[in-house]
Amino acid sequence: MSDGGRSIARIALFAALIIVLGMVTIPLPGGVPITAQTLGVMLAGTVLGPRRGPLAVLLVLVLAAVGLPVLAGGRGGLGVFVGPTAGYMLGWIVGVVVIGLIARSARFTWWRTALAVVVGGILVVYLFGIPVQALVLGVDLVPTAVSSLVFVPGDLLKAAAATVLTMALLRAYPRAFGDEARVERTAARAA
To answer: Helix axis angle, 125-137 relative to 86-103, nearest 10°?
Structure first.
């Protein structure tokens, strides 16, 4: 398979992973469910990097826009892009770029990976999600931000899982990361 074909396959695989992780949800008042979908976004950033990672997220969002039930709880359609979770989905795109940039800024380490998924996968996503949620629901920003604190422990668990899974994948199958030469050298040092 060509490099382009492998890139497309990786992007499609991570889009599928993001979708599957969104199928298990715990609904909460306020319209934003607890889901593992952001774990998929975090992994797309660490494994695919800042160029391919956003393509996996965009693929999921395009599938949602055409009406396929690919978002948390089987939601899809254009209505999700004007609902309370719209900002979080925009945050996924920016967040996955930030994750990829931080995680791949130098040699892969567990602490750099953890920093990447916390900053990009939690902080950046919240920076986009909370203001849009407040606007859509007609609630002030501060109460919306405070109510979002309920998600932080779960997001920290997802960040820990993304870090562990990324480092395990790096050791077991470094070619999954795409940049074979650099990643294989990093994996050899991490082992």
So the answer is: 170
- 31 SS3 class: coil
**Which residue bears the tokens 């994750």?**
99
Domain boundaries, the chain: 3-190
pTM equals: 0.90
Cα–Cα–Cα angle for 130, 63, 121, rounded to 5 degrees: 35
pLDDT in tens, 57-71: 999 999 999 999 999
Name the region of 2 (left: φ>0; alpha: ψ -120 to 50; beta: rest).
Answer: beta
Cβ-Cβ contacts under 8 Å for 83 (sequence gap 6 or more)? 31, 136
Neighbours of 94 (CB within 10 A): 16
- Residues 19-32: tens digit of each pLDDT: 999 987 777 665 56
Please, what is the Cα angle at 179 between 175 and 183, to 5 degrees?
A: 65
Q: Which numeric CATH code is attached to 3-190?
A: 1.10.1760.20
DSSP string, 49-85: HHHHHHHHHHHHHHHHHTT---BGGGB-SGGGGGSTT
Using DSSP, state whether 34 is helix, strand or coil.
Answer: strand
Structure tokens at 60: 């999921």
Structure tokens at 119: 């900053």
Helix 86-103 vs helix 49-65: crossing angle, to nearest 10: 160
Beta-carbon-side half-sphere exposure of residue 44 (alpha carbons within 13 Å): 37
